[in-house]
Amino acid sequence: MRRVYLSSLVVLMLVFSLFIGGASNVIAEEDTVVIGQSAEAPGLHTLIETSIPVFERVNLINEPLVKLNHNLEPIPWLASDFEILEGATRIEMTLRNDVLWHDGSQFTAADVKYTYEWLLDEDNPGANRDIYADINEIEIVSDYEMVFHLSSPNSFMINNMARLGIIPEEYHEEVGHDEFAEAPLGTGPYVHEDWTRGEYHTMTAFEDYWGGVPNFYRLDFRPIPEDSSRLLAFEAGEIDMYHGNVITDDIARLEEDPDFLVKRTATPRYNYVALNQESTENPEIMQDPYFRKAVTHALDREGIIENIKAGLGQPGKSAVMPYMEHFNDELDYPEYDMDKAREYIEMSSLEGGETVNLYVTEGDFWESVAEILAYELNNLDINVNIRIEEYGAYLDRLYDTKDFDMYVFGWTGQIDPDRAMYRQFHSEGLNRVGFYNERVDELLDKGRTVDPNSQESVEIYREIQALILEDNPKAFIDYDEEISVLHADFEGFEVHPYNANNWIQLFDRVTRAE
Question: Which ranges carry the Solute-binding protein family domain (predicted)?
Answer without folding.
Answer: 73-429
